UniProtKB/TrEMBL annotation:
Family: Belongs to the class I-like SAM-binding methyltransferase superfamily. RNA M5U methyltransferase family.
Protein name listed in UniProt: 23S rRNA m(5)U-1939 methyltransferase
Binding site for S-adenosyl-L-methionine: Q299, F326, E346, D394
Stretches with biased composition (Pro residues): 28-37
Listed GO biological process terms: rRNA base methylation
A Pfam family matched in the record: tRNA_U5-meth_tr
Keyword Isomerase: no
Keywords linked to the UniProt accession: Iron, Iron-sulfur, Metal-binding, Methyltransferase, S-adenosyl-L-methionine, Transferase
Keyword hit for Cytoplasm: no
Annotated InterPro entries: MeTrfase_TrmA_AS, NA-bd_OB-fold, SAM-dependent_MTases_sf, U5_MeTrfase_fam
Active site per database record: C420, C420 (nucleophile)
GO MF term set: iron-sulfur cluster binding; rRNA (uridine-C5-)-methyltransferase activity
Length: 463
């Protein structure tokens, strides 16, 4: 559920920024002088939550500095130079590698080290999997949650990512199209991607040529790519108002590359306007075909979605009535409706419109009722929750503290929590445990391959 950060406006080192839709930034703080200008020797002691190696350096008669070293592993010994302050520590740049720790692998992508998307390709499979699971354990232990019934990590294969947002920028006679560098507004003009589905990657070069022809110099936009069941869905965010000539070229592009849908919007959050609607644009959630709005949220991979759905179904099995909270467009709702009647609650108007339309057309399953409600401001109360024998909730990255607290005070027999953020999940899990639930099963799901992000599915039961 994570989203690409809003791009910034200033090119650097000859590379363009990723976008222009941004509020004015506060004035930068004056730089802090590093403790020393020369290189120092360090040994990496751990790998932190963002995937950087972490080391400590004790300067003579001074404070203990925490150092962050990208693309390193535990046991790496190297010479580094101080680069910039990060919180109470420092980001440092490697100067030379003196000795290599265990667990290193050759990166799978030529853009590794520059592109900010896959920061962990230097880990071998065993080291990478253990690190991902440890991040979840660490987040839970900090929230006081121990004795974890941890299932093996569910791994998503390469080339399985079915949605992504790329940034495009025209600079003179060149069109840059790709992802941001890590912690930067500079763009990496991608030529390959080891996580993106091949059918979406195949659109990148043709889109680069199309946008070079359509965009004025210095213009930037976002390109949202989604692979639906009936073909690719392309949304151009920030496209200038297309004239007849541009519409003809865009329509021809959709035809030539067999897109399901091609739409555009003037700015982020603005309604998407159709250019070519060659097919409905559908994805199946269980037995039901749903037509999500252009650019709508979809689980990042079919494999990851299947793992989350399986955990929701296993938890709700035997329930006479189920509530699906933060239901989105029905990713879990319609699979759950094969077991029992489902009440789906969602606050986003675009998502719930798609869910309601699909619920009206669905046949053969149990009834699905739909409610639009902001669960952050108005969570279902313990009294309302008492109508259900199982509740599934899948909130955004911020988690669902208020709803988790209401569940903790309820009598619901089984709660299935789905999360894309181990830290907020740990907080919500602690609330459920304090309310008397027992953590019965915990499944880490690696949907965002080679990144620090991790999905979690957990089953809580009242004893």
């Amino acid at each position: 559920m994570s989203r690409r950060s809003s791009p910034g406006p200033t090119p650097a080192r000859g590379k363009p920024s990723a976008g222009r839709h941004q509020s004015r930034r506060p004035a930068a703080r004056p730089p802090v002088e590093p403790p020393t200008s020369g290189p120092i020797e360090i040994t990496v002691e751990s790998v932190g939550a963002l995937g950087d190696g972490v080391a400590h350096w004790q300067e003579p008669y001074g404070p203990n500095h925490r150092l962050f070293v990208p693309q390193t592993l535990v046991g790496d010994r190297l010479m580094v130079r101080f680069a910039q302050q990060r919180g109470e520590g420092w980001l440092v740049e490697p100067v030379s590698l003196l000795a290599e720790g265990p667990g290193r692998a050759d990166p799978a992508c030529r853009h590794f080290g520059t592109c900010g998307g896959c920061t962990l390709q230097h880990m071998d499979a065993e080291t990478y999997g253990a690190w991902k699971v440890e991040q979840l354990r660490h987040a839970l232990s900090r929230a006081g949650v121990t004795n974890l019934p941890m299932a093996p990590l569910v791994r998503t294969p390469p080339h399985a990512r079915r949605r992504a947002v790329l940034a495009a920028a025209r600079r003179g006679r060149r069109l840059w199209l790709g992802f941001n560098e890590r912690a930067s507004h500079r763009l990496v003009d991608i030529e390959e991607c080891t996580v993106l589905a091949p059918r979406l990657m195949a659109l990148v070069a043709p889109l680069r040529a199309l946008l070079l022809d359509l965009l004025p110099d210095e213009h930037t936009l976002d390109v949202a790519l989604t692979l639906l069941d009936d073909g690719p869905d392309v949304l151009l965010v920030g496209l200038p108002q297309p004239d007849l000539n541009a519409l003809e070229k865009l329509g021809a592009f959709a035809e030539a590359h067999d897109l399901a849908r091609l739409t555009w919007s003037k700015r982020p959050g603005a309604p998407a306007e159709p250019i070519a609607l060659r097919r409905t644009g559908v994805v199946r959630f269980g037995p039901v075909a749903v037509s999500p709005a252009a650019g709508s949220f979809l689980q990042a991979s079919a494999e990851g979605e299947a793992a989350l759905v399986a955990e929701a179904l296993a938890g709700a099995k035997g329930a006479a009535r189920v509530a699906d909270l933060f239901a989105g467009s029905g990713t879990l709702t319609f699979p759950l409706s094969t077991l029992a009647p489902v009440h789906a609650v969602e606050g986003d108007g675009v998502a719930i419109t798609a869910l309601e339309a699909a619920a009206r057309m669905a046949g053969g399953g149990h009834p699905v009722t739909v409610e639009r409600r902001d669960l952050f401001k108005e969570p279902l109360s313990p009294a309302e929750l008492s109508a259900y024998q199982a509740v599934v909730f899948d909130p955004p990255r911020a988690g669902a503290a208020s709803q988790a607290a209401a569940l903790a005070a309820s009598t619901v027999p089984v709660v299935v929590a789905i999360s894309c953020n181990p830290v907020s999940f740990a907080r919500d899990a602690a609330l459920l445990l304090e309310g008397g639930y027992v953590l019965e099963r915990l499944v880490p799901v690696d949907q965002f391959l080679w990144s620090p992000h991790l999905e979690v599915a957990a089953r809580f039961r009242r004893p």
